[in-house]
Each structure stands twice: as structure tokens, then as C-alpha cells.
Amino acid sequence: MILNCDLNNTIHIRMGDYDNNLLKFMYEPFYTSIIKICKFKNFKYNFKINDYTYDGIIENDYFIYVGIYKVYDIDFLLLKNRGVKTIYFQSEPCPILTNDFDEIWDYSKKNIKINLSETKLRYLPLICNKKLKKIYQKAFLSEDIVINIIYVGKQ
């Protein structure tokens, strides 16, 4: 599955995060990259980020879930039954224990090789670029760290 540029529907991106958005710094590069790629390709899509309801998710929409936290709380079968294309972006080096997605996107070729899922897998690597805007993060550490991350992928 590739994001289809001929539809005028919505890409729903939901991040596996705590209620206080502690992990937003980690997932923001992913969803901003998806938005920039779609705009560059002139895809006719609307975006909804972290809308925690199923209202308004309709046939031919895309639902992308990023991260492992709360992934098992999402009713992917409900979405698929509505005709929604479901994608899970695996952000952790651990196997996902469900085949409820249309595709799994992974940052690691190693994860793809050891994945036992019957779901279609795509490799979307992370790269570091020193020219990117710096992301400052304080959530878990006593000292500041600077992160430069970009997501890229190929079919």
C-alpha cells in the first residue's frame, strides 16, 4: 500500500504516548515528515494528529499508529471494516503481537527480518542530519539532550 494521491480524504496519525505528551518530541519528526512528503507530492489529503476518537474516520482514510504504547487499545479491525487503510509504524525493537494492520512500517531491517507477522512490511529508516532543526528534550533526563532526526523511506 502506498498513500494514494487521488483521494481527498484524511490521514489520521496517532502516537502511542502518555496522557501528558511526554513522547511528542520523539514522534513529531515522523508525522511532520509524512505531511511534508504528501505536500511535496501534491497529495490531496487532510491531516488529523492525535484525535483520540474514531468519529470522522471513514472509508479510504488512512490511520497510522506510531509507537508501541497503547497500540493494543486501538480497534484496528473496526477501522479496517470501515474501509480504512491501517498502518503501524514500529518504533521499538520488539515484535508486534497482532496482524490487525494492513501494513507495518519499521525503522529497522533487522526487525523486519525477525518479524513473524503475516502483515506486509516496509522499511522506513531513520537518518541523522546535522542541518535539521534541533529538538530539545528534557522529559526523562536530568540534563538537556539535542536530537536531530528525520524519517525517510522507500517502497
Mean pLDDT: 75
* Continuous helix count: 3
In which range does the helix fraction lie? 10-25%
CATH architecture: 3-Layer(aba) Sandwich
Spatial order of the strands in the main sheet? 2-1-3-4-5-6
Characterize the main sheet: 6 strands, parallel
User: Class in CATH?
Assistant: Alpha Beta
Range of strand content: 25-35%
CATH topology-level fold name? Rossmann fold
The number of domains is 1
Q: Say how many strands there are.
A: 10
Q: Which radius of gyration do the C-alpha atoms yield?
A: 16 Å
Overview of this structure, please?
The protein is globular. With 155 residues, it is of the alpha/beta class. The protein has helices at 24-40, 76-81, 109-114, and strands spanning 10-15, 46-49, 62-66, 85-90, 103-106, 120-123, 126-127, 135-137, 145-147, 150-151. It is built from three helices and ten strands. The chain has a single domain, classed as Rossmann fold, CATH 3.40.50. The strands form three sheets. The chain has a six-stranded parallel sheet. A two-stranded antiparallel sheet has the order 7-10. The protein has a two-stranded antiparallel sheet with strand order 8-9.
